[in-house]
Q: What sequence folds into this?
């Protein structure tokens, strides 16, 4: 058993990241365990998790399991969880009640919980103490262990929790069963070192580690050769891609080399305003197959709040970057993330968020009420603002978000544009 530990998760050392190509193996004893059996996977949270689920499905397929979306028919139920806000957590806890009920009728059902939630000390401890019937608990660092963990649990018939609070390595060579035949997620970077004061991700996903550009480009070329039309390059801070590698190869070069593969469309998420260079902007503007779309979280319109959030930019700097992007990239769409109700966000702070939104008129925004995450610096801040006030602020912000989103969409009224249509 390995339980997570927040102190270890916070640690950043100069330990070198290893690139591991042969970590994933299927023991002979489990090679056919899924024959005639079905698995269900429920995914919560970000695109990173969506893609992790594609890797988990790849593994299940190699073990000969087939996918079902009917929980009643599943022999293995996998929850790939998200820890970013309390409501994601609550959804999973709700589903666990349903699974427990099924398991009471059929004790052979195997339940696996993976993803970000088990990386939290409190969650893994609760699963250990109160949810002993959950068979396998794993984290974000050891998806490759699923075959071994399934093997163990079938033999031992008791709960196994294997969650590592480590900085992490780069695991290559996992199988993948993609949800789409035309659009593909491609990881370029794992983890995060930004430590925004409200955010749990640096603790649940380890330090920022870039994949080697050779491996990324090989993956894109193979996708192109297999008929894929679009790739989305994924990372928590894609702009910082390569900063942790020794070859000085940046996101600008990666985007340019990806564009040269000739794949039809390239997207990339998420960008942090801090690491956006002029070279990147030039590359995005230069290639027609790099979509003019940038997700650039602003989080708040108040410099005081941004400082407390440890975002490391102020509104003036954000605006300078925003206008540069608008000027240099024709037809660029810029979307954002905003948190309302950060501890002690005053009416004036919130008005500044409204003002900046009215000025920049984003194409869309993902808006959230601040959610306290145990172990993060913001969790220690006093907060006198009531939930009612926070909800009102969210509603007011959302009505502005919707107004500008509609305006942005109306620009396309009666226009014919190229798109990819995929039947399910
Ligand atoms: N509470 C609310 N929203 C959060 N986000 C990250 N952490 C929290 C939190 N504790 C939001 C940020 C981020 C997006 C992915 O989720 O806006 O950009
Ligand atoms: Fe979280 Fe900030 Fe890292 Fe984004 S940049 S994952 S908000 S810590």
A:
């Amino acid at each position: 058993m390995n339980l997570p530990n927040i102190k270890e998760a916070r640690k950043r050392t100069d330990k070198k990241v290893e690139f591991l190509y042969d970590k994933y193996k299927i023991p002979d004893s489990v090679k056919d365990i899924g024959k005639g059996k079905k698995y269900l996977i429920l995914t919560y949270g970000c695109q990173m998790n969506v893609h992790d689920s594609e890797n988990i499905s790849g593994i299940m397929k190699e073990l000969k399991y087939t996918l079902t979306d009917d929980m009643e028919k599943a022999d293995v139920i996998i929850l790939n969880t998200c820890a970013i806000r309390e409501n994601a957590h609550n959804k999973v806890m709700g589903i666990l009640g349903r699974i427990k009920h099924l398991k009471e009728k059929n004790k052979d059902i195997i339940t696996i919980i993976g993803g970000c939630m088990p990386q939290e000390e409190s969650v893994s401890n609760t699963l250990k103490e109160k949810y002993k019937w959950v068979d396998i608990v794993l984290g974000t660092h050891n998806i490759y262990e699923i075959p071994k963990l399934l093997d163990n649990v079938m033999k031992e018939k008791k709960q196994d929790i294997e969650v590592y609070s480590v900085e992490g390595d780069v695991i290559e060579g996992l199988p993948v069963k993609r949800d789409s035949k035309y659009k593909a997620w491609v990881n370029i970077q794992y983890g995060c070192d930004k430590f925004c004061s409200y955010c749990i991700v640096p603790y649940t996903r380890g330090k920022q580690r870039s994949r080697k550009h050779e491996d990324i480009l090989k993956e894109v070329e193979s996708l192109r050769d297999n008929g894929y039309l679009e790739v989305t390059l994924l990372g928590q801070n894609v702009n910082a891609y390569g900063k942790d590698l020794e070859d000085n190869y940046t996101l600008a070069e990666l985007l340019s080399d990806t564009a040269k593969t000739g794949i039809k469309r390239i997207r990339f998420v998420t960008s942090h305003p801090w690491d956006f260079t002029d070279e990147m902007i030039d590359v995005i503007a230069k290639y027609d197959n790099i979509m003019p779309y940038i997700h650039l979280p602003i989080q708040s319109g108040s410099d005081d709040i941004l400082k407390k959030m440890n975002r490391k930019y102020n509104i003036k700097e954000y605006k300078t970057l925003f206008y540069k992007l608008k000027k240099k990239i024709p037809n660029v769409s810029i979307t954002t993330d905003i948190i309302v109700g950060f501890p002690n966000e005053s009416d004036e702070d919130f008005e500044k968020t409204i003002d900046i939104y009215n000025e920049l008129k984003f194409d869309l925004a993902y808006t959230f009420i601040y959610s306290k995450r145990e172990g993060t610096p913001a969790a220690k801040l006093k907060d006198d603002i009531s939930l009612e006030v926070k909800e009102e602020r969210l509603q007011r912000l959302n009505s502005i978000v919707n107004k500008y989103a509609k305006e942005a969409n109306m620009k396309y009224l009666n226009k014919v544009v190229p798109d990819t249509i995929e039947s399910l």
Summary: The radius of gyration is 22 Å. The chain has a mean pLDDT of 96. The chain has two domains: 6-162, 179-410.
